[in-house]
Amino acid sequence: MNVRRVGIVAKNGLVAASEHVSQLGAWLRARGVEAVYETDTATLAGSAAHSARTATRDLLPNDVDVIVVLGGDGTLLAMAARIARSGRDIPILGVNFGSLGFLTEIRIDELLPSMESVLGGTARLDERAMLEAVAYRNGQVFDTRIVLNDVVFTKAALSRMIELSVSVSTGFVTRVKADGLIIASATGSTAYNLAAGGPIVHPMVDAFVLTPIAPHTLTNRPVVIPGSTVVEVRPHANGEPEDVFVTYDGQSGYPLNEGDLVQVRKSAHVLRLVKGPARGYFEVLREKLKWGER
């Protein structure tokens, strides 16, 4: 991988990252690599980004060969979706400034050594499957999203339990009566899915998970399904219209009407994550989630 330009994105208002953003830009320039700052991140960098190229978050993936994200998993998820929309196949190096940072697993003291391995072509990259969601209304597509973690159906703030019909490629599955439903990728299995009682799925497993949120019946349990499956979810009115919301990676969403249809399948796009030095998946589980500790 020939790296000529590196995009730098920090969480909005993350003043703690200012010094590191400036240092990274100088470090890259000293090696003949151009630093391209996301517009708001350039403000954090101050004078260090005075003559540097800048780009909006939406356009940044079109201008660079690698993106460095400084923040938490939410910042990385938002950039992952933008990379997928751009159609580019560029890796993300996530530096943790959040409270957990399961995806942004690289520590700040590991940033420059990790970048050195990226420039030298020796970095380890994880390919993570993404989900594509296509929403239909009156038989017409009205929205398409690509997400890394999950597609979540929930009730509105004051609505009662919601009802969702769930089908897969082979036919009808069930009618879920619950506070909601999570469709999670293997990567997303350690996010909202885990908090809702769903299983951890290794990211190299070609599968995703259907997890009801606080189901009305105890028999509605999480189920792991093949990655080749297409899931169809239809909301049913159970009170006020538009009492079902769909959200994408916890970043954005909208209300659904009865008769709407959302299809979720594995996307043709994958996200390439730069791995931390000599740290495997289960070590990350133990470090971040305290997995297996008493």
Describe the overall structure:
With 294 residues, the protein is an alpha+beta fold. The chain folds into two domains: 5-124 and 275-289, Probable inorganic polyphosphate/atp-NAD kinase, domain 1 (Rossmann fold, 3-Layer(aba) Sandwich), CATH 3.40.50; 130-268, Tumour Suppressor Smad4. 20% of the residues lie in helices and 39% in strands. It has helices at residues 18-29, 39-45, 60-63, 73-86, 111-120, 192-195, 281-289; strands at 5-10, 34-38, 53-55, 66-71, 92-96, 125-137, 140-147, 150-155, 162-168, 171-178, 180-185, 207-213, 223-226, 231-236, 244-248, 252-256, 261-274. The protein has a six-stranded antiparallel beta sheet with strand order 7-6-17-14-9-10. The chain has a six-stranded antiparallel beta sheet with strand order 13-12-11-8-15-16, with no helix packed on it. The mean pLDDT is 89.
